[in-house]
Amino acid sequence: MTVSKGLFVAATALSGVSAFQLPQIHLGASSGNDLTGLPVIDTKALQELISADNLESHAKKFYDIAKLGEDEYNHPTRVIGSKGHEGTLSYVEAELAKLGDFYSVSKQPFPAVSGNVFESRLVIGNEVPSDASPMGLTPATANKQPVFGDLIVVENDGCDESDYPPNVSGNIALIKRGTCPFGTKSANAGKSGALAAIVYNTDKDEVHGTLGAPSPNHVATFGLSGERGKALVQRLVDGEIIDAIAYIDAVVETISTTNIIAQTRDGDPDNCVMLGGHSDSVAEGPGINDDGSGSISVLEVATQLTKFSVNNCVRFAWWAGEEEGLLGSDHYVEVLPKEENKKIRLFMDYDMMASPNFAYQIYNATNDESPVGSEELRNLYIDWYEEQGLNYTFIPFDGRSDYDGFIRGGIPAGGIATGAEGIKTKEEVDQFGGKAGEWYDPCYHQLCDDLSNVNYTAWVVNTKLIAHSVATYALSFDGFPERTDEVSVSSYDEKVKYHGGKLIL
Ligand SMILES: [Zn+2]
């Protein structure tokens, strides 16, 4: 279940127009751009143009731009709505403008939900549990003041309004994780008159989720570890009365932000290879690896591609609002007319290319679960790493980045990554070096995701692979499956628990 669908429908007619009109504007290469002297795209030649120096100089610019966010956030950030993000967009546009008219560049503004929790506290009995945290996009408690009530156990998984006993009203609902999204549980709690809601995990750990698209029924909602949640339920079932205080000061607002799309004027506009990274960071830091690295890789490949002519169109995207739940890419696919959807032969996602404790990860996208062609793309990455004598691992294709909307839209997709908050195993140290038992990116979604948080070896390798993916499909789609009318993503849908970086369910 996607979280943003309903919310953005209203904006569709207003804002979605510019970007997907592109293919109609330019038919072939007769736009005054003299491409006759350019050599036809060649993967080896394009890969050779990728250098650590260029990536680093863009990274330094991204960090300087993130500092523009300091006034408002007290630290560097490129989160949507900040000066750091606006600066990032201006920088990408300015770099694209330097490339003359090789690309047709457009902006696609859209309304994005942005949430910020300023302060929060949960007190249960006499305890302040350290394993509780407010959900993303949670509203504040009433009047941004603490609310007081008894903990009331909700029946089943709290996915049905009838699961909420009458005495939830005026009290605090304690709900088990599972079956339906956190947002549904929060809204059901709100409808039943709860002052706040707590969703406890089904395994013993903490749970960090998001409520997704705002609803007027949402109430202030915390996630709680399964260990504590289950213990509380037991005490309540045994007849104990446990009171609680919940307090959240937060805002959820809708702001305008924008995707940037650049498409080659050259190449068959009915057969496009599309790729993207996200231009935004989280509020907590400058986001140099997440996803400065991917945005920069995509920008650098776009820059070097101008030295070649292409047979198929190449469309680059810098998505906004990824960190708020894939908002930009969802919006893009959602407003894409059917005939334009069909022109995108595949989408390649490049998010986090340079994690310090990296692994070469390939999304395990298969034709059984994802639109046909996803597996051929996966195999292109496998073949390339093998050719270079490099190891790789598969990671779940489970909704954590901007490929999600494309898969749901029936468009084959895939991508590579280098790891976020996952823990590197001993076997992976044998494969890639680095440190076992630590996160692939120890600064994931933190202030320290700065210039020292990128591994240039991994970054150059992966940017060359991005160049290879672009060059391959820009040259030819021979052997790559045609698009079909069939859109069946039910098995994909079943395993997806994420929508962006945070759990939704
Ligand atoms: Zn990311």
TrEMBL record:
Residues 259-468 form the Peptidase M28 domain. Its EC number is 3.4.-.-. GO terms for molecular function: aminopeptidase activity; metal ion binding; metalloexopeptidase activity. Residues 1-19 form the signal peptide. Keywords: Aminopeptidase, Hydrolase, Metal-binding, Protease, Signal, Zinc. Its cofactor is Zn(2+). Residues 147-232 form the PA domain. One of its GO terms (biological process) is proteolysis. Belongs to the peptidase M28 family. M28A subfamily. This is Peptide hydrolase.
